[in-house]
Amino acid sequence: MFRTFGAEDATDLAALVARRDVTPDELLDAALQSVEELNPALNAVALVQEEAARRAIAAGLPAGPFTGVPFLLKDLGCEAVDFPAHNGSRLLANTRYAQDSAIFERMRATGVVTFGRTTSPEGGIGVATEAAVYGGPTRNPWNPDHTSGGSSGGSGAAVAAGIVAMAHGSDGGGSVRVPASCCGLFGFKPTRARLPDGPYSGEGWGGMAIDGFLTHSVRDTAAMLDACAGADLGAPYWAPPLVRSHADAISRPPQRLRVALCDTTLTGEPIHPEVRDAVLAAGALLESLGHVVEPMRPHADVARMMAAWTDIVACGTALGIRKALRGQPLAEGEVEGVSRGAIARAAQIPGERYLEAVGEIHAFGRQMARFFDPERGPDILLSATLAEPPAKVGRFSHDTEDYVAFRTGPEGVFAYSPFCAVFNASGQPAASLPLGMSAGGLPIGIHLATRFGEDELLIALCAEIERAAPWSHRRPAPLPLGPA
């Protein structure tokens, strides 16, 4: 896509369409050709709906910031009439929807040409995308032996490989930021309730889940967030209103900020040496830009929060499966091992424990808010996105039925990704920036977070860093083309 049209990001592609240097049909042709050539090696794109995309172009695309730009939806949520979904599960394969979700309507209004979906793990509860419904794992364009992350792993792989310039994702425990880190992309999790959830749900996972985007540039993400921001009709709660807009925020650098640098996990355990080096380099970069950087980490009960997160998501997973079964018993092979483990865990959780877990998440949010106290605390928390470079394919297989160990065990998801879910629980905005590379040539993401509601401050800082240390020139080597 980018080599063919000489573009750096989706904004560049939209400009080509606006100047009539290329048509939306020609961009769609190129994206479909890329799927044909690259998807056998990646297994990132599913459920291609070319006819729906052609109809949208023929009917006249909305005039928006991305008119004519090819686009993919994550195969989890983001309900759309023209785009059936597997939702990462054999049980839910080929699910169709009677109406479009609010988030899809807003994305469509930007003028994007949606033509399919991207792979995700079953239930969205993994940091690798290897769902059985797609016939194999989704692989990382930087090194196919490694995972592209999860749960928006297909979107991360498709964008990093250049099939599309940006794609939809969602994030309930790092599911945008983890693939951004693995694939060398920009991923931004907005403040809780910044984007709409309706009408299919009031909130995801007790308010911890939210939609987002995988992009090559801060400006692409800013434009998409502005187009999609705001509560939908009947939303149970709203995010604090933006002062101006994300796009306006990135046009000017923020004031000089107080940055807390954490080169361990948030509970003090060591992280991979190469990842730690990338964190320290990011701190030095911020100091060179005039920000005040000092070692610090929050004093919050991360372990208790993670246990509560695990119980809430077990209940959410069990509920989704029960609704899909419609009163029928679960048959052998309909869901994967981790999902069966989540059902078993949920059966052990009485209603009062579920409410207690939600309360623990809320209490944790207050602990994190105190850490960012405007009078005494830092403005930004700087850490790694993951505790190590991207994992090998198969390490986080969903075959196991020990759901709790899969999440919280010493070799589990939270040990690998100890930073991201913290900000799903607190609801605060957070981002992963592609600033580091391992000696083995794999991307290393740097994580930034700030106070609840201060999305504009965070994205302005991300844009300042992007200008100081551009990453758009860093792309994976071309993949082998054609059938695997």
UniProtKB/TrEMBL annotation:
Transmembrane segments: none
PANTHER family registered for this protein in UniProt: GLUTAMYL-TRNA(GLN) AMIDOTRANSFERASE SUBUNIT A, MITOCHONDRIAL, TRANSAMIDASE
Coiled coil region boundaries: none
All residue ranges annotated as the Amidase domain in the record: 26-458
Annotated Pfam families: Amidase
Name the UniProt record assigns to this protein: Amidase
Family annotation (InterPro entries): Amidase, Amidase_CS, Amidase_dom, AS_sf
GO MF annotation, one: catalytic activity
Family: Belongs to the amidase family.
Upper lineage: Bacteria, Pseudomonadati, Pseudomonadota, Alphaproteobacteria, Rhodobacterales
SUPFAM superfamilies: Amidase signature (AS) enzymes (SSF75304)
